[in-house]
Amino acid sequence: MEALFLKYVDDVKCVSIDTYKTMRKKHFSHLDEDFSFLKGLKTIAVLALSFPNDKPKLKNQHHAMVSRYAHGKDYHLVFKDKLEALEKELHQHGIIAYGSVDISKLDERFAAYLAGMGFLGHNRFLIHPNYGTHLYLATMLLNTNFTTTPHLEDDCGDCRRCIEACPTEALAVDQYFEQRCLSFLSQEKQPIDTPYAKKFQMLFGCDICQDVCPKNKGITPVNRSVFKSDENAQIHLETLLKKSNKALLKDYKDYAFAWRGISVLKRNALWIIKNRNLKGYTALIEDTIEKYQNTPWLYQDARKIAAFMKEKA
Questions:
Q1: Which residues have a catalytic role annotated?
Q2: Which of 6, 105, 129, 200 would bridge 271 by S-S if both were Cys, CB 3.0 to 4.6 A apart?
Q3: Range(s) of the domain holding residue 135
Q4: Same structural domain for residues 171 and 95?
């Protein structure tokens, strides 16, 4: 049965529903989770697709990159087709299966860890022995018992490189400060505290803790063309600030960064312009302030950035 899964994905590891519930209650009892959606099911299969770890060189200071995981086609779309095909094949074997990616109530990373797909690093990523942190996860709930052989256990040991490299001190050995994380902040619809916003250099997400991780050295991701970097891995800041949300969705509908909407990307672009002290954007900043008066979090940040730029002028 494992071979059937591996027709579609790069790795599969399984954990029983009972084990998952027991470990969630043990480690996350404060969440008071509802597990009723798992009734009648026996196994969680965690599926992984790896993606390349190469990046194009930044064209110039008037472009900004998106996080590596958002290069190429949106992995949700890629997984969707694979999950649907896999569900059909499993049904032919008399197995009821429900696949999902990012929309399930399951904690995918925790399930992957319990299943032995990898370990959870200080950077809060699942770290796979062959693909490092460069993999996408999905889950499939099965109504039958199914076991796989876990990978050998590993951990970060004495390494603290991601902790030391994080520009906002969002990481610690046993803690993660979400409200400091540049990846988290770059996707939130809220004003950003200036000390953290001053660290923005990427338009969407952040790759610093992955770039410095030694577990990402010498890995061998599958060379899958659908996830290769293309022209849209980096975006021209002026062009972005002139776009409407409709134009964004038209141009980038198949990319994982487009789902958050144009206002978030514009807010991030403005901070990058400020942080790089780029000239010639005054009119676009003022235009953003005018257009987004009814979007308080963007309006607030845009006015703050305009004030910073005037001081530098």
A1: 102
A2: 200
A3: 2-53+71-142
A4: no
